[in-house]
Task: structure prediction
Amino acid sequence: MAEKEYWPSRTSFVLAAIGSAIGLGNVWRFPYICYTNGGGAFIIPYLVALLTAGIPLMILEMGLGHKFSASAPLALKRVGKNWQWLGWLACGVGFMIVAYYTVIMGWCVNYLGYSFKLAWGQNTESFFYDTFLQRSENLKDVFSFNGPVLLGLLISWVLILLCIWKGAKSVGKVVFLTVPLPWLCLVIFVIKGLTLPGAEEGIAFYLTPDFQALANPRVWLAAYGQVFFSLTVGFGVMIAYASFLPKRSDIVNNAFIVSLANNGTAFLGGFAVFSTLGYYAHQTGVPVESVVDSGFGLAFITYPSIINHLGRFAPAMGVIFFVMLLTLAIDSAFSLVEGVAAGIMDKWNARRLRVNFGVVLVALIIGLTYTTRAGYYWLDMVDHFMNSFGLIIVCLLQCIAVGYFYGTRKLREYVNSQSEVSIGIWWDLMIMFVTPAALIYFLKVEIQDRLAGPYGAPLMDRWAEVIGGWAVMAVLAIVAVALMRARGRESA
Amino acid sequence: MLAAILGKLPASAIAMLIIACAVLYGGLAVCIVLAKKREP
Result:
């Protein structure tokens, strides 16, 4: 029988949860979303979304994990017998995400190597798409593998396996390195960025508020979306992590620390990004608004261009930047694996080592698709569907399961009995009404967008969307139900 | 350096900066102090 795991200390748990929440999106998504949605004015909906949806969801997941001392499937089974499938769906969405997240980590591993000699040259866009990814013209080229990307993927998985070797015990130690290190890199970038000429112009772009944007529902939607995407809720991770906490652990304060640290890091990330974008605009004579980018474009095209302009510091800053991305990504990645592994171990009382290897092997096989010449397109498609539908649906159903079937009051009373700071009835209202309303609205807009045209059109058509999006969602739901029905050997 | 950057920002941007810092970093500091109090 598998032995129950516990965190070595409260700090280990908090760091692991922070590491899981803080990912690449904090650096490459938040600054852009902030800039395109009212600049400094975006802070208002962002904080409102954090307090009305992000933190309540975090408390809900940590509360469930701790109360039932179980991973997502088992915890939700204890919420209501028929909700177990939702726990598996959450794990499934996280599993699909880690399958491509590790490919992006593989890109970072390669770019870390390129940084020493600034191998990307002057045309960073062509280098990324043509030389490095060797991206095909269409989506059909899924059998020609890209060697360097494949090698990067394998290195990423080896790193993850080493981190989760002994579950909470080893993760609890690793996070003392993998959480502070990206913060240190980020602070170095902020200090370096703010001392560069033109930085003030970039910061002005980042923070100058456009208060009229607050009247636009899409801005509020973007704020809620950013909070949902960045906190690693909805993947069963926080439930699994909280299940490794000993009794009498403060749930409310931990949830606040993790959420505030996550959003605080994203806000700080904006200074690193916009100060250097301001410098780049200053050096090249191009307006800041035309160099602003997010996601892969920012990390693998714009940033290498900026690094090229940093003179003798260029290779060092390149190394710091990609070490930062890699360490930001690794704790999110292994937390997603942990979420799935904990679910399997709970259900079948299986040995950790065997489960770890099994989960990693299947994720690696799925991830191979993204290492092909057409992999970039499929990665983008799956990423969109997992975040815009998978994550949103899981969060919504979790609110419904707890809010309307289990009872928010029961969970609130349990959470308060464990915590130093109590939550009031406001939490019930958030879980029952406000958060579901935001999630339903988000879902409605996404469905409308998909009905208007396929994702990634004109390159991607309806068939690609069906295969890479809807079919993946359907398979996840079927697998979730099948796993619920499978006979397990749940521990009491 | 900071003065130059802040000097370039409109008052409304500085106000938003203060609000964000107070809520995010101030809130985080309070939570950490509370946690330390409970488990020194």
